[in-house]
Write a structure and sequence with these properties.
about 375 residues; 22 strands; five-stranded antiparallel β-sheet
Length: about 375
Amino acid sequence: MLTAGAAAAAGATTVAFAPGAAAAGGTAGARWTASWATAQTAPTPTDPVAYTGLTDGVCTSVVRLSAGGRVRLRYAHAFGTVPVLVGPVTAGGRPVTFGGLRREWLAAGGSLTSDPVEGLTASDGSRLTVGTRLPGPTGPLSFHRNTHASHTVNGERTTSVFLLTGVETTGTRGPVIAVLGDSVTEGVGTPDDADLRWPDQLARRLPGSAVANLGISGNRLLLDDARFGTGGQARFDRDVLSLPGLRTVLLQLGVNDLQQPPSQTDPARLLAAYRQTALRARNAGLRIVGATITPFEGWIRWTPELETVRQTVNAALRTGRVFDAVADFDRALRDPSRPSRILPAHDSGDGLHPDPSGHAALAAAVDRRHLL
C-alpha cells in the first residue's frame, strides 16, 4: 500500500480517466509506443539513496507524457546485481499489475512491463504520477540521476527516478522519436518542472507524436564513465532499440568527447563512431538524424585546439554522408560574431549549456520532415 503522501501525489495527476476500460481485454490489436522514457546509470557513492538502496521504500515519479492513450509502465535494472521486488504500484491513482499480480520480481539486468492500467487513459502532454513501493532490501538501484523534475522518495524531494524507465501508450498518431544525448538533451540550463528541455519543446511542435528523452549529463559517444554512464555506442541497443514503435533516432552527442578528459582530439574517431551508430540504426529499420556539436567557448575546458576538432567534425556532418539528415544545432546556438561561443542571449551562463530560449532554438532546428 502507498503512503498517504504518495497517494495524495498520485491523485494530483492531470491525466484523464476512462472508467470501464479493461486491463487486458481489447489490447490484442493495440500499438504500444514509448511516450516517456529515461536512460539509466549505475549509482556511485555520491548517490546515497541509489547506492544504498531502499527497504520498504516508496518512490513517487511525476512524468510528462508526449502522446496519450492507454497506459502501461516499464521498469528496468540495467546495472543491478540482484533481483528487486516491485510493487504494489499505482499510476494516476490506479492499481498496476504485472501478469495480474500486484507485485513482481525485476531481474538484475532485466526489464519488467506492466499490464495495461485498468480504467486509465492519458491525454497528450499530460502529467502522470507513478507510485512504486520497493519492499527491499533492494541493494544498489539503477536510476536516472537528474530528470530536471520533482519526484519523491519516502516523501523527500528528489530529481532522480529509480527503476522506472518508460511509460508506453496507445494513442500515438505521429512518429516516435528517441533522442540519444547528453546534458543538453537532459535539460541542463532549464528550470526544474518547467518542461522546457528542447525534446519537450520538440514534442509540442509534433502533436500526437512521442519524443523519448534519453539524455544523460556528461555522456559521451566513445567512452564510458562511472558517473556519466555507458557511452552512446555501448548503450544504443539497451536505451534506443528497446523502445516500442520507434521510427527515428536523433543523436546529440560529441561535445563531452571533446571537453571531458581524456579529450578526443582525432575527428576521424568521432566520425567513425557516428557512422557506426548510423549503420546500427538503419540495420534496425530506423531513420537517424544527427546533430552538429554546439559551441562551448567560455566553458572551463574549451581550447582553440578542441574548437578546430569541433569545426572539422561539424563540416563533415553537414555533407550529408553520415546521417540520413542533420539538425544543425551549432548554427542554431552560435554567436554569428564569434562562432566558437553560444549567442549570449541563449547562454545559461556557463558557456556550454543553453538557457530555455536556446533550447527553443534547438527544437526549432529540427526539421519535422526529417522525422517522418
